[in-house]
Design goal:
Layout lengths: L48 H4 L19 H7 L2 H26 L29 E6 L5 E6 L10 H21 L7 H6 L10 H6 L23 H4 L8 E5 L8 H16 L3 E5 L37 E5 L3 H16 L5 H15 L4 H16 L13 E6 L18 H16 L12 E6 L14 E2 L9 H8 L21 H6 L19 H24 L2 E4 L4 H10 L1 H6 L3 E3 L13
Helix pairs in contact: 8-9, 8-10, 11-15, 15-16
């Protein structure tokens, strides 16, 4: 057994370290990677031992003096530069990732989320620092960084907006409303909620309120707002001493529709809704195709307040304080207004309820111009006098009114949808009403007598054999045929200069004919630009058409005991409203010949 060495501190050789017996203390040759080559040129083996085994560490003695500890700066600057760069890169990546996480958390609301109104490719929401120079709904942030939305209209922008701008505004309002709700992590209001339940949008800020709170630029005293537009019977000078209305509803008469009946029905219905909801009612006729409102009707009732600044009169949403309604926005606004009416009046919003709204507006607004009103009253008296001219008849003869619409309005009934209801159908309905009138008497059918009144947009209808004995509803303004115009201009005793070929109203009222009425002839109806400002002569002639239309309806509703018409025509529905529910529906004084349809009121197609 080998003898143990005493290495205690008492040994005189305390600083000497003795290698263990198993370690070979022979001197090793210095390591050289080139010494591992082939020793002899005749040897075919290549020795790889120098790659597999490293030389053993050389024994060393402990230092007599303790080593000085290196400072951190020495460690930093004596490391290899690549290691320092790598650590700096790791640190930069870590800081950048931390910054991105914090940024994403703070601005998590800008992450795109698929929403119903965002899927429409024709709209794109963009961010900008300033306010747009065109009318559009925008998302704004209050002092607490809460998202709201409003409608921004430049202060001096032209009022009313164009038809194109109004037609796209409601879709934009729905999109921006959905975006504002998404920023609050709420689902957008569905169409059913918006249009059926009269639910206000909690994140909408009215324009006037947005100006007070700084969300929109306030009105500066040095730059007063522009008073554009033309309100019927109102002017800024006469209204300047009145306060600004707290709530209002303005109907813009400008429309791409050439017809007059739809605009009149809109007016009556909106007037009743405005009065019920405490809104002042205004009518803008600055770009109406029929001229001014007072060229056909008397001015509407004047409210006790004046219109607000034009940039505060918004087309959407329906909850705004100062609402502007156009024919192109009616289908978006009317359901919400009717939903509020239903909630306030606790009604079922049935046909009679809608009928009552229109009748309320009719009684307040339907007053023809003074000259036309005088003529209509006299015409009604003359027609009623004819029923008392037949002696020997125990009862008064009935007056049967016939309203026949041709032109570009075709019936609902399938068999006549590409043509018109025949004259004999109207005549047959009229005859049955006459028979029903005399059924309670002993008078023989040969002695039946009735006064028939006819009103039509087609002057050729009166020449039908079925209506040979019918009276025209009014003869104050008549739509002439081409032959009548040519006969009035021709005098064989004189030479006449060349004139453009005259055109008449054969076939009825057509939109293309209306837009060209009084203007220069065009090669086709498609060439006519309906947005082009008409001349004074065109407006004067168009107003004649409107006056004739409204006088026809006034005489038919005022003089007739029974009215026969086709409900596909708006004039037929207007006649029912003018007659009243009791007379038209309860006493069956209003008869429809166009299928089994009833009174439909407004059609929003």
């Amino acid at each position: 057994m080998a003898t143990r060495l005493d290495l205690s501190q008492s040994s005189v050789h305390g600083k000497v370290m003795v290698a263990p017996p198993r370690i070979n203390l022979r001197r090793t040759a210095s390591y050289n990677d080139r010494s591992a080559g082939t020793i002899s040129s005749t040897s075919s083996r290549l020795n790889f031992n120098h790659l597999l085994f490293s030389p053993p560490p050389s024994p060393s003695l402990p230092a007599l003096v303790p080593r000085r500890r290196r400072s951190k700066s020495d460690l930093l600057f004596k490391h290899r530069p690549s290691r320092i760069i790598r650590r700096l890169l790791y640190l930069s990546t870590l800081l950048a990732g931390f910054y991105l996480c914090v940024f994403a958390f703070r601005h998590r609301n800008v992450i795109h989320i698929a929403l119903p109104y965002f899927s429409d490719p024709q709209y794109e929401m963009v961010g900008q620092d300033g306010f747009p120079d065109f009318p559009t709904p925008i998302v704004v942030h209050d002092s607490k960084k809460r998202s709201k939305w409003t409608v921004s209209i430049p202060r001096n922008y032209e009022f009313p907006l164009s038809i194109k701008e109004y037609s796209s505004m409601n879709a934009l309002c729905r999109e921006v409303s959905a975006r504002a709700r998404d920023l609050h992590h709420k689902m957008p209001l569905s169409d059913k909620i918006l249009l059926s339940y009269d639910r206000p949008d909690d994140y909408f800020v009215d324009a006037s309120e947005a100006e007070k709170t700084g969300l929109l630029p306030a009105i500066s005293k040095g730059q007063p707002p522009r008073h554009s537009g033309q309100f019927s019977r109102l002017s800024y000078d006469t209204m300047s001493d009145k306060p600004v209305c707290d709530r209002s509803l303005t109907y813009v008469l400008e429309s791409p529709d050439a017809g007059l009946g739809k605009a009149v029905m809109n007016l009556w219905t909106l007037y009743a809704l405005a009065k019920e909801q405490g809104r002042a009612f205004f009518i803008d006729d600055s770009r109406w195709a029929y001229g001014t409102y007072t060229s056909i009707f008397q001015a509407p009732p004047v409210p006790d307040c004046r219109p607000p600044p034009r940039h505060q009169m918004l087309p959407c949403p329906a909850q705004t304080r100062h609402l502007v309604v156009s024919s192109v926005t009616m289908q978006d606004v009317l359901p919400a207004l009717l939903a509020k009416h239903q909630r306030q009046s606790h009604s079922d919003l049935g046909t009679r309820d809608l009928f009552g709204l229109a009748h309320t507006g009719y009684k307040a607004l339907f007053k023809l111009s003074e000259d036309d009103e005088v003529y209509v009253d006299k015409r009604i008296r003359d027609l009623k006098a004819k029923i008392r001219s037949n002696q020997g008849i125990p009862v008064n003869s009935p007056i049967i009114g016939l309203h026949i619409r041709h032109g570009d309005r075709h019936p609902f009934e399938y068999q006549y949808r590409d043509t018109y209801i025949p004259a004999e159908v109207f005549a047959s309905y009229g005859n049955s009403l006459v028979e029903a009138h005399y059924n309670s008497t002993s008078l023989e059918p040969e002695k039946y007598h009735a006064v028939r009144i006819i009103a039509s947009d087609d002057p050729m209808v009166h020449e039908e054999s079925e209506f040979a004995d019918a009276h025209l509803a009014q003869e104050h303004i008549r739509l002439a045929t081409k032959q009548v115009i040519q006969d009035s201009n021709n005098n064989p005793q004189f030479l006449h200069s060349f004139k453009e070929e005259a055109f008449g109203w054969e076939g009825g009222f057509f939109a293309a004919m209306f837009w060209n009425f009084g203007g220069k002839p065009t090669h086709s109806a498609a060439d006519e630009d309906t947005t082009k400002a008409p001349s004074e002569e065109m407006l004067r002639l168009r107003s004649f058409v409107g006056r004739a239309y409204m006088m026809d309806l006034a005489v038919l509703s005022g003089a007739s005991d029974k009215v026969v018409c086709a409900v596909s025509a708006m004039g037929c529905r207007l006649l029912a409203v003018m007659m009243g529910w009791e007379r038209a529906m309860d006493h069956r004084g209003w008869r429809n010949v166009d299928g089994g349809y009833g009174w439909g009121g407004l059609n929003l197609d």
